[in-house]
Amino acid sequence: MDFHPHEWKFRGEAEGDRRRARLRRGTARAEAPPTLDLVLTIDQATYDAIVAHAKRDHPDEACGVVAGPEGSDRPERFIEMVNAAGSPTFYEFDSTDLFQLYKDMDERDEEPVVVYHSHTATEAYPSRTDIGLASEPNAHYVLVSTREHGNNDGPVEFRSYRIIDGVVTEEDVTITPTEESTP
């Protein structure tokens, strides 16, 4: 059984119980309605990884997540996922991979900051299906269109959106230099 990338509700009560326990211990903040900046700031290496994944999987749609610390809006950890649908017009994460991803994010106190996928024959704009499945109100939804050059060299269309309660709002994308990690 496969889940769509935005059907992360199977985390269920266990996830809610952990958050409530952290609130009681004072190690988590209460979740208020988010005030969202309409800009995605992403480093060059992460941008390049998303684009490379989209081109490599063309003509099928690619999909993945960039996780970051809970509440930070900082995309830090790129996670390439497999499109279990293997389709040029639809994507879904493998349920086992998705479950493991959420276990890993929970252990690291992370959340999905970016949810990305590619469109292979249309513009980089959320389809009705994409909009209907979007259930992470704090996430940036990135779409990469490979329709012009496929998996060949050439530019792609890279756009980011906030999707909350079915309302799509495009946002600016700022690409920053990748910081060198120190050993």
Would you summarize the structure shown here?
This protein is an alpha/beta fold and 183 residues long. The protein contains 4 helices and 7 strands. It is globular.
Question: Could you please describe the fold and organization of this structure?
Answer:
It is a single chain. By secondary structure, the chain is an alpha/beta fold. It has one domain: Cytidine Deaminase, domain 2 (3-Layer(aba) Sandwich). It contains 4 helices and 7 strands, in the order αβαββαβαβββ. The protein has helices spanning 12-25, 44-57, 95-107, 128-133, and strands at residues 39-43, 63-69, 77-81, 110-119, 140-145, 157-164, 167-176. It has a 7-stranded mixed beta sheet. 32% of the residues are buried.
Distinctive features:
183 residues, alpha/beta, Cytidine Deaminase, domain 2, seven-stranded mixed sheet, 7 strands, globular, disordered N terminus
Low-confidence stretches: 1-33
Order of helices and strands: HEHEEHEHEEE
Mean pLDDT: 84
C-alpha termini separation: 41 Å
Strand content: 25-35%
Major β-sheet strand ordering: 1-7-6-5-4-2-3
Number of separate helices: 4
Count of extended strands: 7
CATH class: Alpha Beta
Taking the sheet with the most strands, its summary is: 7 strands, mixed
Secondary-structure class: alpha/beta
CATH-assigned homologous superfamily: Cytidine Deaminase, domain 2
Q: Indicate the CATH architecture.
A: 3-Layer(aba) Sandwich
What is the general shape? globular
List the domain count as a whole number.
1
Radius of gyration: 16 Å
